[in-house]
Amino acid sequence: AVFGTDFTFEDIVPREIEDGNYRRLSDQVVQGAPGYVVEIVPKDHVDSEYSRFVIHVQKETCVPLLTRYWDDRGLLVKELTAPSADIKEMDGVHWPGTLTMKNVQIDTFTTLTVQDLEANPKLTRKTFDLRRLESH
Q: Which residues, other chains included, contact 22 with Cβ-Cβ below 8 Å and sequence gap of 6+?
């Protein structure tokens, strides 16, 4: 858990796209909005605490509104929700203002509120200088 929350490091830092096998499922309406549904199964070489997860992405904004996570026994362990009413837009980027991760096994939840976001920041080549990155 990250700082005693219901989020883990894996929940916060996105994986590389090649780390999973993807399958498009039937579209569904989530929170009254049409959405794409995608199942992701981490590849064998990936160290994941989840055996699969299913993401419901709002078609209009491409923001995930619901993500469900299963463990290696096939049990649903977590649900991440982002209220569609809380989606913000800044410089052409849509992002959820509020995220709630619920651990369905122990019935706890953590809500993350995004108060400030810099969309499309200007990054120089110096930002990615190896020495600079290693110093952090």
A: 38, 39, 40
